[in-house]
Amino acid sequence: xxxxxxxxxxxxxxxxxxxxxxxxxxxxxxxxxxxxxxxxxxxxxxxxxxxxxxxxxxxxxxxxxxxxxxxxxxxxxxxxxxxxxxxxxxxxxxxxxxxxxxxxxxxxxxxxxx
Length: 114
Fold this sequence. Notes:
- This protein is of the alpha+beta class.
- It has one domain (about 5-100).
- The chain is built from 2 helices and 4 strands.
- The protein has helices spanning about 5-15, 20, and strands at about 40-55, 65-80, 90, 100.
- β1 and β2 form a beta hairpin.
- The longest helix is centred in the first third of the chain and has 15 residues, at about 5-15.
- It is globular, with a radius of gyration of 17 Å.
- The relative contact order is 0.23.
- The model has no long low-confidence stretch (mean pLDDT about 80).
């Protein structure tokens, strides 16, 4: 796939993937009293590589290697409590925020293998 399409998928899927974290649930009574969390993602490294995905025909002992784009960086969580405290910065050196199959544009969950 062209990289421009990969970037469009990234922009859409990062919002969807993090919707549970970024949604204010206090109004519905699900998470009463919890502060609203705002996250700012900073991607500083995009890597083209391979990922193993589960092969249903081969069983647990084998998989398929597919070309992927991985997005790495950091995010800052801000709970809006105080301007003095600032946000919490989390750096993800080795864990990709999102892995996208470079062939068909599907999002791959590296933990589950598909």
